[in-house]
């Protein structure tokens, strides 16, 4: 009887683990598909929402251009005369899009998990000789940087985040905010949440200044743009939080780590995953 009980208990435990894994994967997929769908619907719009949003943010100055989401054409045009055929075409297009997105989500999820495991293992090894690679300390700095940068961007004053960013990225963001101020625009961010973060790529160089680590960032926030003259919303949504996935690159500065680049989820191919 004891052996039978142990077998049943073991089977129930395995079922529980499988169901829990599937649930976590489902939540991740829904979250990421929503991010992909947003990118798909607005791929032709040049909009800078949130710090780092709307495209990659690197070390170059660049320019800032603001617009509105989808106030013109929706980006889809059905040239069938029959409305029924248009509806079928719409449904089929979304089925294909969701299927491709789902596959992409699975691939990204597996890649992130594998790379995170390898990166943490490598960081533990490096930290034995160099305390700057201690994972918990780096994770704490990444979390702090995430909130300070987003709040500074929303407050239209990157000076608060200067010590958390590379010089080039700081100058780039400062310049973008100056253009927004000239255009009487402000990007308001509220209910800022960092849901998950994982290291996915590491480079340890003989020159410490060239050390770097890429982090997978999964967050959410209320994100919209207002006209500072009228205080009216001109883009985004004032009420609902929107999830997003990005990849943040941190480079070493002494024993600290500073943000030097941000890539969107669809730009992850530029990262050499661990």
Provide a concise account of the structure shown.
The chain is an alpha+beta fold and 274 residues long. It has one domain: Nuclear Transport Factor 2, Chain: A (Roll), CATH 3.10.450.240.
Which short descriptors sum up this protein?
alpha+beta, Nuclear Transport Factor 2, Chain: A, 24% strand, 274 residues, 44% helix, single chain
Q: What gross morphology would you assign?
A: flat
What structural class do helix, strand and pairing data support? alpha+beta
- CATH level-3 fold name: Nuclear Transport Factor 2, Chain: A
The strand order across the widest sheet is: 1-2-3-4
Order of helices and strands: HHHHEEEE
* Beta strand %: 15-25%
CATH 2nd-level architecture: Roll
The number of helical elements comes to: 4
Oligomer: single chain
The CATH class label is Alpha Beta
Largest sheet: 4 strands, antiparallel
Query: Average pLDDT, to the nearest integer?
Result: 79
Number of domains: 1
DSSP helix fraction: 40-55%
The Cα radius of gyration reads 22 Å
Distance between the termini: 47 Å
**Low-confidence residue ranges:** 4-8, 36-48, 59-77
The overall strand count is: 4
